[in-house]
Design brief:
Elements (H helix, E strand, L loop, with lengths): L6 H16 L13 E5 L4 E5 L13 E3 L6 E5 L9 E4 L4 H6 L5 E3 L9 E2 L2 E6 L1 E2 L5 E9 L5 E10 L21 E6 L3 E2 L4 E5 L6 E4 L1
Parallel strand pairs: 4-6
Antiparallel strand pairs: 1-2, 3-4, 5-15, 6-14, 7-13, 8-12, 9-15, 10-11, 10-14
């Protein structure tokens, strides 16, 4: 049988093994080996692991930074002095509808050695909008020197689903406790070949400051 290249399609074979093991009582060996299997993007292969998150994980905190203004900033290991970025997003315009622009882009410096990024990700974003609601969409990408990119993972959250203040909230009008938006992506496994590029955020409408 030829190898199915897409991770989701490839895992169908694993799902079949589990179904045959527990529903048909066939010994498929599904309980043998490591209990965790992850798909490593870049290497394009499955790998077994004994625990999740990986016990050898080196947790790293990055901060959205760079000079104020404009749509591009930096991802830094130390917090900056503060600041904000403002842009207008019209979901009915062709750039927004076709290309998802404008968007904010934050880059790390180029990676000087092979690096694996594996594990859960969380972005804490402080933002304000003039629209009644919006959807924040975040991409983490591996960007090549020529500007092409591979999406490693992405996450999204409707702004109205953030933390709410019960005393200020009505059934039809949620009151915010804080402008903080917390987006989580449950898992990621990849080997960026150049440097990572983070796209937070792309709102669905309104004016945003992040």
């Amino acid at each position: 049988m030829p190898l199915l290249r897409r991770p989701f399609a490839t895992y169908h074979l694993e799902a079949l093994r589990r179904s045959n093991q527990w529903l048909k009582e066939l010994d498929t060996g599904v309980m043998d080996g490591d209990p965790i299997r992850i798909w490593v993007q870049g290497d394009d292969r499955w790998r077994g692991e004994p625990e999740w998150p990986l016990p050898r994980t080196r947790w790293t905190e990055l901060f959205l930074g760079g000079p104020d203004g404009g749509l591009e900033g930096s991802l830094d290991t130390a917090p900056g002095s503060g600041g904000s970025r403002t842009f207008h997003y019209d979901p009915s315009s062709e750039p927004a509808w076709v290309r998802g622009e404008p968007r904010l882009v934050y880059r790390t410096p180029p990676l000087d050695s092979e690096t694996e990024v594996t594990g859960p990700l969380v972005l804490t974003l402080w933002a304000e909008i003039t629209a009644a609601d919006t959807d924040w969409i975040v991409w983490v990408c591996d960007e090549a020197p020529d500007g092409t990119r591979d999406i490693l993972t992405k996450g999204w959250l409707r702004a109205s689903h953030r933390a709410l203040d019960p005393e200020r909230s009505l059934t039809t009008s949620p009151g915010t406790r804080t402008p903080r938006v917390r987006l989580a992506r449950s898992s990621l496994a990849g080997r960026p070949r150049t440097w990572s590029r983070c796209y937070p955020p792309r709102p669905s409408s309104g004016r945003a400051t992040g």
